[in-house]
Design goal:
- This protein is an alpha/beta fold and 386 residues long.
- The protein has a single domain, classed as FAD/NAD(P)-binding domain, CATH 3.50.50.60.
- The strands form four sheets. A seven-stranded mixed beta sheet has the order 5-4-13-14-15-12-16, sandwiched between helices.
- α4 runs parallel beside α13.
- The longest helix has 30 residues.
- It binds flavin-adenine dinucleotide.
- Flavin-adenine dinucleotide (FAD) binds next to α1, β3, β12, β16 and α10.
- Belongs to the FAD-dependent urate hydroxylase family.
- It catalyses: urate + NADH + O2 + H(+) = 5-hydroxyisourate + NAD(+) + H2O.
- GO terms for molecular function: FAD binding; FAD-dependent urate hydroxylase activity; urate oxidase activity.
- Its cofactor is FAD.
């Protein structure tokens, strides 16, 4: 289809990537975000090869490589500092044809924002609903403004307002753990500069991976009841207590982090949805399939959505609603499967059944590197770019 006007709600990874793809397809695109200033939640993100391939296709490969870290291997270590598994990831890159890039979120957001162009991103616009008729869809904003287009894309995250207009109210499920994350200066005393290390034990984990700019993205995770709050000033005290007795690099990381710049998040997801579209409204990214981050695929799936949605609009001519139905058919099962797979992994990592978690620690020692690589390759190669 030609000459479409696309209204996108949300200027996160999903909304911006969709904006870039739709623009390249020749469409008129406007993005609206409720934030007054775009600031990503979270410090880093690992873009696996399926997400990277889409960004390559959009012409962003070189820029992404410049902000990405060079992660060549991953290692699981126990909280008593025993190596449980070591996987050289380079055979994976050979198999799938592209390396992944761990990046600082601010760098990624800036890259996408600049590639889309700031002039068509409208901030301070809180979408409260969407209406549609046979010919158009209209986003309604808290300030009373109404913006119409041929379609409205709800890329407005886990607490999506657009989602309510497609499938009704959906509650976020708390995943029973807290995640802390941030960036520190790369230091070989913390981690090998080309390694993704994960310390695990007692149903908790602590991890570091390289991102561009000579930094490590780090995260910690620990089971916790819902509703706890700790002021940023006390980040180090809290982590030092939870990870007391863990290996030296973990202790050094806690000392090295900037407490005011360390995020503390309660992690959740949503049940797979019955529908991702309704007429001229499409859900995309976390609004469609928010997941726990234990597979590192949430952002990658948002990027895949952008590619697939644009492809169906661009390569079919029955009508917008028809293209959206095709998008739903292509994305629903893949994303649902990953949400449920991540949920299962979350339960294993964070000790929902402590015996199963202990068993997983011993299984890690037995698991051949090839099976880790094959599992990762399977997810990557099932993406829209193969
Ligand atoms: P968001 O990034 O949430 O963006 C939504 C945007 O919509 C925001 O800018 C918001 O301001 C705006 N908005 C919200 N409501 C409204 C409204 N009513 N009106 C207007 N605007 C609105 N994924 C990976 O691929 N790899 C990883 O390694 C990885 N690690 C993760 C680690 C953690 C701790 C977490 C929490 C997630 C991780 N993810 C990862 C998942 C990834 O961050 C998300 O899947 C991704 O950010 C979703 O992008 P999005 O654009 O759909 O939503």
């Amino acid at each position: 289809m030609y000459n479409l006007k696309v209204v996108i709600i949300g200027a996160g990874i999903g909304g911006l990537t969709t904006g870039i793809a739709m623009r390249q397809a020749g469409y008129q695109v406007e993005i609206y975000d409720r934030a007054q200033e775009l600031r990503p939640a979270g410090a880093g993100i690992s873009l696996w090869s399926n997400g990277v391939k889409v960004l390559n296709h959009l012409g962003l490969g070189e820029k992404l490589a410049a902000i990405g870290g060079e992660m060549n291997a991953m290692e699981y270590r126990s909280h008593t500092d025993e190596s449980l598994s070591y996987v050289d990831l380079r055979p994976l890159f050979e198999q799938v044809g592209q390396r992944p890039y761990p990046v600082a979120r601010t760098d990624l957001q800036t890259m996408l924002f600049e590639a889309f162009g700031p002039e068509d991103v409208h901030l301070g616009m809180n979408c409260v609903g969407v209406e549609q008729d046979e010919h158009s869809a209209t986003a309604i904003f808290e300030n009373g403004e109404r913006i119409s287009g041929d379609l409205v894309v709800g890329a407005d995250g886990i607490h999506s307002a657009v989602r309510a207009c497609v499938v009704g109210q959906v509650e976020r499920r708390y995943a029973r753990y807290v995640n802390w994350n941030g960036l520190v200066k790369a230091d070989p005393e913390l981690c090998d500069p080309n390694l993704w290390v994960l310390y695990v034990g007692d149903s908790k984990r602590a991890s570091m991976m390289p991102v561009g700019g000579d930094r490590f993205y780090f995260f910690f995770g620990a089971p916790m009841v819902e509703g706890t709050h700790v002021e940023p000033t006390y980040r180090q005290e809290e982590l030092a207590k939870i990870f007391q007795g863990w290996p030296e690099p973990v202790q050094k990381l806690i000392q090295a982090l900037d407490p005011e710049q360390t995020n503390r998040l309660e992690i959740g997801d949503i049940d797979p949805l019955e529908h991702l579209v309704k007429g001229r409204i499409a859900l995309l990214g976390d609004s469609a399939h928010a997941t726990t981050p234990t597979l590192g695929q949430g952002g990658c799936q948002a990027i895949e959505d952008a590619e697939v949605l644009t492809r169906y609009l661009h390569t079919t001519n029955i009508g917008v609603a028809d293209a959206l139905k095709r998008y739903e058919a292509a994305r629903k099962d893949r994303t649902a499967e990953l949400v449920l797979k991540a949920r299962k992994r979350t339960s294993l990592i964070y000790g929902y059944v402590p015996e199963a978690t202990e068993q997983w620690y011993s299984d890690l020692k037995q698991e051949p590197p090839e099976s880790v690589i094959n599992a990762l390759a399977k997810v990557i190669l099932a993406g829209p770019m193969g």
